[in-house]
Amino acid sequence: MEFLDFFNYSFFNRALLMAIFGGISCGIAGVWILLLNISFIGVAMAHSALAGAVIGIFLGVNPVLLSFIFCVLTAVLIEPISKASKLHGNVSMSIMFSFMLALALLFAGLMKSYKVEILGFLWGSILTVTKQEIILNFIMIIILFCFIKFFHKALTVIFFDREIANLSGVPEKLIVYIVMVLISVTISFNLSSIGGLLIYSLISLPSAAAYQLTYKIKNMYVLSSVFAVTGSVIGLLISSFIELPVAATIIIVLCVIFCIATVFSIKK
Amino acid sequence: MNEVVSVRNINFYFDKKPVLKNISFNISHKDCVALIGPNGAGKTTLIKLLAGLLKPSKGKIELFGKEINSEIKKQIGYIPQNISVDNFMPILVQDVLYMGFLAKNGMFKKYSKQDVSLVEEVAKKLDIFKLMQKPIYKISGGERQKVSIARVLLQNAKILLMDEPLANIDISYQKDILKIINDTHLNKNITSLIIVHNLHQIPSCCNKIMFVSEGEISAFENKETFFGSDKFNKLWNF
After folding, report:
1. What is the model's pTM?
2. CB 3.0–4.6 Å: which of A39, A71, A167, B52 could bond B68 by disulfide?
3. What number is the ipTM of this complex?
């Protein structure tokens, strides 16, 4: 098959659109996770989404909805667990991460059918995305853009110092919770295309690369999204042309982008 | 009303251990209070309680005759000991200065031309104008404190709470910061409370000294009468 022939297939064009839209939303979510310094929460949330999706399939409930609920639950539960157990937040996050991954594998093991669907959520199946998923991701991008537009000042002061945000009349706790919910939705909407095991990489790598190249938050949003889209599209094209696993190829391309950004980092 | 700060019988516990025990005092308008005492005495906890960043386990704190709420908080200019920025946080000095307008303008209002010229004016006055486009992590500790003070000036705060503003700052810079604190306190008609670690770091505008040790106020007196008194010698030697 010639390279350009792929564009004649509607499933491939849908995958391309998903790579672009998913890249933009994951790029933005990654900036928030990095600047709020909640990388561990992000990892735990990503794996909770996977558990939610698998349990959703097991129970016959919408897996995207359940993955979103699990994501939010994880984000909300980490602090009470830390307080109750007198452990550092990172420890409670690793407990949640382990528990959620175990739940996902347990329910996957309990199922006799639906294995293909579960494998899709584990490893990703961007080539099978539906129109509905693409539309949902597009709507998500509009919501994320609006949120950044209206809350940029509040987000900047929260990233800088939450105590100063509090004293400036910014409802910092509420805004951080909204950010968590938006990250959860982003993870849930992209789970089926990139897979539960690699979704966090799609979120963290582009923002980490963008971080190397700018001193401005607005530039970080742009660069992170551009890197995520570039990695996703190039990964999709390479994997389709030489028949490699799509999600893994996307993440490897993103790793290369991160390495290049680190070499040219302005923060050395 | 002359009382800006009114603290009544406050206690604060951390992990069931008392950090502050039954503290009461008043601070009047235009007072500048230097808060001194050994490490771990509860000074930072006290200043955070006054800023409304912590809530007392028992007792009552009033600022401007009202319990601390989100509106009262907007009148508090809080300067933490160190600007807690991540090593490479992509935030510029000018971003921090504009944060001063959040209390007045809210989250959604665009900056006016007047706001922009005010930022320039304050930045020039504090000699940080040339740093405006620099990332906050790239400037020195002393310059960061100047940025914090500039932010509070732009906020137009009525009460200034500073947690060791001279900590980890080069001695050559300390004089500069002390002058700015003095000018800010005197020219803006505000009430100030400053934690200091060494006596030579007390700004000359301070008229009162509060000595905190083991979670209690051991002394709260006029600066002139306190220094040189037997009480001071006993406490400070301790």
Report:
1. 0.87
2. B52
3. 0.84
